[in-house]
Specification:
By secondary structure, the chain is α+β, with helices and mostly antiparallel strands. Helix content is 30%, strand content 36%. It has a nine-stranded mixed sheet, sandwiched between helices. The chain is globular and about 40 Å long.
């Protein structure tokens, strides 16, 4: 499967395999304090270029199996966010989990909404998934509002669901099903899809 990239007016979305390790490491290092509460506790190696060289190599190797798709938002030459669809299941389930994050300096500009609209549309229309699940901490009002605006519906509440930054945290469980997404029409905001040879 070839790499899929999305181009917007204000930013682009590139798959992990199309980025350099130093720019991904710089993004996570720059946002360590901002993102740490919504991520598992990471060792120092996670924030190094060497770690991301390994991750990019692994992603390229596993790309053909399509168990995950990982995009990064880039404004010029700087990574400003990430969107990942993982645990992709085929067969009768046709589902995956969504995770995302954005640079502290890029919040409130509507960039993540655009990125999710386009990538969700790809996962449902082109990739053929029926369900995308996304879970968030109850205190993360911004994330809950964003998911609701995209058509995600609350399906439950899980106590001590994930261990983030070294602490077990409750999560609200939500999902977007294909018929709800498709009934909403095409994603807003101008963008183009590009299939890139890897």
């Amino acid at each position: 499967m070839q790499a899929i990239c999305f181009l917007f007016e204000r930013f682009s979305m590139l798959e992990l395999s199309e980025l350099s390790a130093d720019e991904v490491a710089a993004y996570f290092s720059r946002n360590k304090g901002h993102l740490m509460e919504s991520m598992p506790l990471q060792e120092a190696h996670f924030y190094t270029e060497n770690f991301w060289v390994e991750q990019i190599d692994q992603y390229r190797e596993s790309r053909g199996q399509v168990r995950e798709l990982r995009w990064f938002l880039r404004d010029g030459q700087q990574v400003i966010g990430h969107v990942g669809f993982d645990q992709i299941a085929r067969g009768p389930f046709q589902s995956c989990y969504l995770g995302y994050g954005i640079d502290s300096g890029s919040q409130g500009r509507g960039l993540m909404r655009q990125a999710l609209l386009k990538s969700l549309d790809y996962m449902v229309r082109d990739f053929g998934l029926n369900r995308v699940m996304a879970n968030y901490e109850p205190g993360n009002i911004r994330s809950g509002r964003l998911l609701r605006s995209l058509g995600f519906e609350r399906e439950g509440y899980a106590r001590r669901y994930l261990k983030l930054n070294g602490r077990w945290k409750d999560h609200v469980l939500t999902s977007l099903v294909a018929d709800v997404h498709l009934a909403g029409g095409s994603p807003t905001g101008s963008s183009n899809s590009i299939v890139q040879e890897t």
